[in-house]
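Journal club prep, notes for RB
We'll compare a predicted complex against what the paper describes. Inputs for the iron/sulfur cluster case:
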Amino acid sequence: MSEVFSAIQGEAALVGERQVFVRLTGCNIRCTYCDQPEALERVAGPCRIERTAGRRDWSVVASPLALDRVVEAVAVLWDQVPHHSISLTGGEPLLQGSRVERLVERFASHGWPVMLETNGTLLPPLRRIGPDLAYVSMDLKLPSVDGELVAPTTQAGFLAASLASGATTWVKVVIGPDTDPDEFDAGIAMVAAAAAGHDAPVEVFLQPLTPFGGAAAAPTPDQVLELHERALRIHRRVRVVPQTHKAIGQL
Ligand code: SF4
């Protein structure tokens, strides 16, 4: 566990909602633009827990934490301010398979809706926890943007499983100045194909890259417009939403 705190969601479908963020350490890939480099290694270490919702008055404790301690930390924040849901984030939360499974069960038993933020690559743990999730925000990974080589078939299987689980699922696509148009079109077409067999709409959120780490430049306004238009020609439910939490000085 890396941190537990209350903040305003700054990305995709729940932008602007108040959430308790539960951030787990460890990720199975390394995107060039990753803005959570301290959460990438799955190692024991300090975890910071906010005491007052949104005030950043941290207590620092040793991690791993007992699940009871995590639930207690969430409950303290949840009871101070009405929250929309929990953001289970990372790193890649599904990397901690059985532990995440038990954590999500506990959250669900309290009646707290859980949104999973995921890179959409680890299918077996998703199958186990999917029924307890209210929302899934799945990244569509593009090698020309993130520098990784996530297999499109893996992401297609993940998206299908998430939709089948009943969780409200959307897809977030980080776009950069070097986004490969063919790769981008293929990814949007994959989402459109998955959405075609599904009753509820599947929204896509294009997120212009915020320069960080190994990613030095954002896409130009014209590039954003062009990619939005390409996506809309393939799939009708596409919006552009930048990282708003950074614009308003939130975590
Ligand atoms: S999947 Fe997410 S947490 Fe992992 S490296 Fe990429 S951006 Fe960072």
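Talking point for the session: The first strand starts at residue 3 and ends at 8.
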